[in-house]
Amino acid sequence: MSVLAIVLPACVSSTQLTGSWKNPEATHTYQHIVVAGLTDNILARQEVEKDMQNQLQQHGTKATKSIDIFHPTAGSKKGPDVNLLLEKMRGGDYDAVLTVALVDEKTQSRYVPGNVGYRPITRYSWYSNFRGYYTYWYPILYEPGYYTEDKIYYLETNLYGVENDDLLWSAQSRSYSPASLHKASEKLAEVTINKLAQDNLIPKATTIVEQ
Description:
- This is DUF4136 domain-containing protein.
- This protein has five helices and six strands, in the order H-E-E-H-E-H-E-H-E-E-H.
- By secondary structure, it is an alpha/beta fold.
- It has one domain: 2-Layer Sandwich (Double Stranded RNA Binding Domain), CATH 3.30.160.
- A six-stranded mixed beta sheet has the order 1-6-5-4-2-3, with helices on one face.
- The longest helix is centred in the last third of the chain and has 18 residues.
């Protein structure tokens, strides 16, 4: 495998699941799920919860953002009292809560080579004399490469039953150098909810037939 083939994938943004687990006792689909982004960043919480909600709804599952139920400033620095949260969810028609948390973040250095490339002789007039050739190539040949830093985010998504407060399903994912929070959140929601459907914890995606 060439060096180029190894380097190029490293600079492409991607979000993918790296592992998942399902409780063998989780044997039915869940109908109304609360989505909870576990972060003190309100904008990130809103984005993640919105995208997860949209994906769940596309699978015919009722979904409610936790930010619409629990005020962002409620409780102490440790967050709202968990017993109050469970009590509130049990008082509604919710049967599960889906949590999303950033569990680790790493920075990776990557070397970007200088601007060097091959050009066919017949296409460029500067090949015909030394002055043109030297003037064109000298700046390029001596343009140095540089190091850039990529961010790698590791996330964990868990599904808990509201009635018994038991872990039903868990997935780990990795987001490599995302172009934006919006793009990463959308992709995370897509791969996560598709896996939940594949594991038969929510219905498969609904298909809308045009009349």
